[in-house]
Every structure is written in structure tokens, then in C-alpha cells.
TrEMBL record:
Pfam family, one: SPRY
Gene (UniProt): Trim47
Descriptive protein name: TRI47 protein
Keywords: Metal-binding, Zinc, Zinc-finger
Ranges of residues in domain B30.2/SPRY: 179-396
Any GO MF annotation of the entry: zinc ion binding
SUPFAM superfamilies: Concanavalin A-like lectins/glucanases (SSF49899)
Transmembrane domains' residue ranges: none
PANTHER family per the UniProt record, alphabetical: B-BOX DOMAIN CONTAINING, TRIPARTITE MOTIF-CONTAINING PROTEIN 47
Organism: Smutsornis africanus
Stretches for region Disordered: 173-192
Length: 403
């Protein structure tokens, strides 16, 4: 009986303990449900606000396109009407002149004078299309926004899963640009581990008259000059164009597709005079710029008028990695998520008994280039040369991530 009483007492104690823990568990369940409900409510509210932001942006972009279309159409339609009216007037004057009897000299002279006056009327002004380039930036802007949103969603999802931030590590700078964290530096002979995915827009105010721009990402050399408006930053003697972007700190990485022809890709000082002669104005033929050139047979690195021929096969995609603090510029051939170092421009000590004129030029004058603000630069050397600015290939993103 004593054992039975002890057993029943133990059961009673266990029941009381379970009752307490059940109460605690119920409170925990309710707490989790309440926290989840509040979090769900906050998330739904934030998604709603994000949707409103996107809807506002979509409305603004659509309105921008409509305004650009309205402006361009008004100018184009006015020009069309003027040409049609002029053609009709000239045709009528010509018909009147042909209908004059050969014996009526005075009437003939009157109609001839009328035709002459019509011919000498001032031509309509050339179409300016001031908003054309901005008008065609919409696709690139929305695409860039979509890519950033997609990357941010992926990174935050990985973060929620406890995997950490997956992808490129950026830090905001004073000018709104980004730089990778200092721990992201790697050996210069290996692909960059966490560079800035630099977004480049071509500057229409710098494009030579023989360069046709396709939006802000494509450029092609053409035979017929394009009537660009006057600009103090426009190249006059070289078929070159710059990016609008300035680089003066941190690390920057971008990619360029060589679609056709001879193309040079590099950087140039912001204060470079675009009116320089052809021999001095070309990328890499002066101390204010450097580049990687594809000449149809080889890649060639240029700086200060000195060259270095590179024995590598052709790559359609060229990666450019600028390390401003390291005073280094590296060119990569990109293919199938692999990056081949083609050439690095950086001060380097010679091995005793060796002398390289190109590297000697680099050692003496290349660091001074980084005293300037730099811009991406492109030289389309051959007729029909054609290039396209990135975005980065998806299969290369993993190579660029921190390892």
C-alpha cells in the first residue's frame, strides 16, 4: 500500500508538472502565432508599399516615353508637312512653267521667276530630337532596376535561410557609387573576387560624328556622319566615345561585347582634350589614357604610345577590372564562366637583366593617371566596328563572387 501510495503521488506530481508545461507550451504556441501574424501583416504592408513604388515608377517611365514620343512626333510631323508642302509648291510652279506658250515671253519669265523663288526658299531646320537619347534609355533603366531587384531578392532570401549574403559585397560611397569590401582583394593574376558590377551609360555628348549610338549601351562606326549637336566634350578627330560615369575611388568591373571589327576598350582622364589630333587623341597613344585593342589578329595593350602584344585567342567578351587604390587595370577574356587574364597594367619591378619598354613606361607614368578622375572609353577603329556594353553574363557571376 505504501508503494502504491508513493506511485500515485508520483503520478500526481507528473500530472501537475505536465499541466504547467502544457500551459507554457500553449502560451508559446499563441506567442508564435501572434508574432507570425504581426510579421505577416508588416510584410504584406511592405510588399504593398513596394508595389506602389513599382507602380509609380512604371507610371513615370510610361509617361516619360509618351512625352518623348509626343515631342519627337511633333517635330517629325512638322518636318514631314513642310517637305510635302514644298514638294507640292515646286511641282505646281514647274507645271505652270511648262504650260506657258512658247510665244508668251513675259508670262514665261514670270513663272520662271516664281519657280526660282520657290527653289531658293529656306530649308526647314534639321531635326534635333533633343530627347531621343533619354527617350531610348527607358529599357536599360527598367532592365537595370529589374536586375538589381532580382539580385536583392535572391540575397535577402539566402540571408533568411542562414546562408549569409550571397553575391557581390558593396559599400556605398559619397558619390552613390559602390566599392567592394577591402577583404575582397585577390591576386592580380586571378579573376577579381568581389568587384563592383559597374553600370556604364555611353555619353552621347562625347561620341564622334562617325559613331552611331544604340540607346546608351551600343555603339557602331558608320560611313555617313551623324549631325550631332555641338559639344565641347565631343571627339573631333577620333572615332571614340566615353561613358558618362566617373571613377575616382574603389574598384570597378564591367564587360564589353566585341560584336564586329577593330575595337579598343579602356579608360581616359576626365580632363582629356577631345580635340587632340588623331595620332595623339587615340586611346593609349598618350599618357592620359590606356586600352586593350583588338586589331583583327591580336590583342594589344597600349599606354603612352607604347604597346605590348598579347598572345591569346579572340574573346567576344572583355572584362575590365579597375582597382583605383591599387593603381591597377586588368583586362580579362571571358568565356563560359572562365576569366583569362589578358594583361594587367600596374607598376612592376624588372627582373635583373631584362628590359621591357612598355613596362618601363608603365612604371614611370601610369600611376599619375590615377591622380585624375577616370572615365570608361571606347575607340571603334574600323568601319562597321560594333560593341555593346554588358550586363555581366549570368554564368560569370559565380566567378566574380567572393571565394
Amino acid at each position: 500500500q505504501a508503494q502504491q501510495a508513493k506511485f500515485l503521488s508520483d503520478v500526481e506530481n507528473e500530472l501537475e508538472e505536465l499541466a504547467v508545461t502544457i500551459t507554457q507550451a500553449k502560451k508559446m504556441v499563441e506567442l508564435i502565432k501572434g508574432a507570425a501574424a504581426k510579421e505577416r501583416e508588416k510584410v504584406e504592408k511592405l510588399f504593398g508599399e513596394a508595389s506602389e513604388v513599382l507602380a509609380t515608377f512604371q507610371k513615370e517611365v510610361s509617361g516619360f516615353i509618351e512625352d518623348g514620343e509626343r515631342s519627337m512626333l511633333g517635330e517629325a510631323e512638322a518636318d514631314l508637312r513642310w517637305k510635302e508642302e514644298r514638294r507640292a509648291k515646286l511641282a505646281q510652279c514647274k507645271q505652270n512653267l511648262e504650260n506657258v506658250p512658247s510665244s508668251d515671253t513675259i508670262y514665261f519669265l514670270q513663272e520662271f521667276q516664281a519657280l526660282k523663288v520657290a527653289m531658293e526658299e529656306n530649308l526647314s531646320p534639321a531635326l534635333s530630337f533633343q530627347n531621343e537619347l533619354n527617350f531610348t534609355k527607358c529599357t536599360q533603366a527598367v532592365s537595370a532596376m529589374k536586375d538589381l531587384l532580382s539580385a536583392a531578392c535572391k540575397n535577402q532570401w539566402h540571408h533568411l535561410q542562414g546562408k549569409g549574403i550571397d553575391g557581390l559585397s558593396f559599400q556605398e560611397t559619397e558619390e552613390g557609387l559602390c566599392s567592394p569590401s577591402p577583404s575582397a582583394r585577390r591576386s592580380p593574376r586571378h579573376p577579381p573576387s568581389s568587384p563592383l558590377a559597374f553600370i556604364i551609360d555611353l555619353d552621347s555628348d562625347t561620341a564622334d560624328k562617325f559613331i552611331q549610338l544604340f540607346g546608351t549601351k551600343g555603339a557602331k562606326r558608320v560611313l555617313c556622319p551623324i549631325p550631332y549637336p555641338e559639344s565641347p566634350t565631343r571627339f573631333n578627330n577620333c572615332e571614340q566615345v566615353l561613358g558618362v560615369n566617373l571613377m575616382n575611388r574603389g574598384n570597378y568591373y564591367w564587360e564589353v561585347e566585341i560584336i564586329d571589327g577593330w575595337v579598343s576598350i579602356g579608360v581616359i582622364a576626365e580632363d582629356f582634350d577631345p580635340r587632340e589630333s588623331y595620332n595623339r587623341g587615340r586611346l593609349g597613344r598618350n599618357e592620359k589614357s590606356c586600352c586593350l585593342q583588338w586589331n583583327g589578329q591580336n590583342y594589344v595593350a597600349w599606354f603612352g604610345g607604347f604597346e605590348s602584344v598579347i598572345q591569346q585567342p579572340f574573346f567576344h567578351t572583355i572584362g575590365v577590372f579597375l582597382e583605383y587604390s591599387e593603381k591597377a587595370l586588368t583586362f580579362y577574356g571571358v568565356k563560359d564562366s572562365k576569366m583569362t587574364c589578358l594583361q594587367q597594367l600596374k607598376v612592376s619591378h624588372f627582373v635583373k637583366g631584362q628590359f621591357d619598354p612598355f613596362q618601363n613606361k608603365i612604371n614611370h607614368q601610369f600611376p599619375s593617371l590615377f591622380l585624375c578622375k577616370l572615365k570608361p572609353a571606347f575607340f571603334l577603329e574600323s568601319v562597321d566596328a560594333h560593341l555593346q556594353i554588358g550586363p555581366l553574363k549570368k554564368d560569370c557571376v559565380s566567378v566574380l563572387k567572393r571565394r
